[in-house]
Specification:
It comes from Terrabacter tumescens. The chain is an alpha+beta fold. The chain has one domain. It is built from two helices and two strands; from the N terminus they run E-H-E-H.
Length: about 60
């Protein structure tokens, strides 16, 4: 991607990247070339107290 959509070389931090809007934002930023650091409470090894099925690892893989 070129122009204003290209975020190559930029770094983004997205809180709540496991699901919902945070996940969508993290994926889009990654698709535009940014290095994204995302946080979330659910992982493959341990779910949050809300017991949601989404994991932060799935978000990371969706951006590739």
């Amino acid at each position: 991607m070129e122009g204003h959509n290209d975020l190559t070389g930029r770094v983004a931090v997205v809180a709540g990247a496991t699901r919902g809007a945070g996940r969508a934002i993290a994926i889009e930023l990654g698709a535009r070339g940014a290095t994204v650091y995302g946080t979330g409470r659910s992982t493959r090894e341990g779910r949050s107290v809300m017991n949601r099925p989404e994991t932060i690892e799935e978000t990371a893989l969706a951006g590739h």
